[in-house]
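User: I'll paste a sequence; please echo it back and then give the predicted structure.

Assistant: Echoing your sequence first, then the prediction.
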Amino acid sequence: MEQSAIERLVAKSPEEAIIDQICRDFNLAPFMARTYFEQMQRYFERYLNLARDVGQMTFLALSATNPPGRAVADCERLAITLTIDHADDLMALSQGLAVLRQGKIRRLTEEAHDQGALLTQEDLARLLCTSRSTIKRDIAHLRTAGTAVPTRGQVKDIGRGVSHKTQIVGDWLAGYTFSQIKSRRWHTVDSIARYCSAFQRVVRLHVHGLAVAEIRRGTGLSERLIGEYLALYAAAEPDNERLNQLLSAPAATTEQPAEIKRGAWLS
């Protein structure tokens, strides 16, 4: 799709309309307006239980606790929230329909897995209005690239790949700029910044001695993603510039630098 058409679609999103209105009402720069918008969004989710956003839907999926081989008709189902439309989709669309579809597959299966459910290839075909053979081909492409796609038909393969969020944070640790990651991974700069910020929170909480279960409660992230982030942290070189900057900067909660002795970081 032409870039001009992509830009028009971005401008039509409810998020951009609200951010633009905040800019006008309070005479703020777009960056500050976006920051306030995201903070208020978190407040609404926390205090008013308004967790479902524009572009999301409730979907009845198979629980991950169902054993392999059980007939679908006999399986327990869970009501989960899936993001059908996201700003990242417009970035992917600029690369073509196949990239858009694969990005959605990656996001939908991860969201379902994080909520204790597993989507089938038939579910994905239904949600994305395409054929099962196309979904099967896309999943094979993603898995070949090392991306986790936890569908019901591949339960035993869950965990062999890493999530796209972890890949993005890995790029950041490797020294790529947000703009470079945007081109590599077809995600918006806002999404990339959000994933890196979540990684930073996980690492700081880990450094201060919190267990994975406590980090999950404090951040709302899944234990699987926290585990991937901590694995990235553990694998980082002691002289990794960005990791050292992260841990030597004052923490927002304490205004004190985190401990930067490498031996104290890992248990």
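Residues 3-157 form one domain. The radius of gyration is 20 Å.
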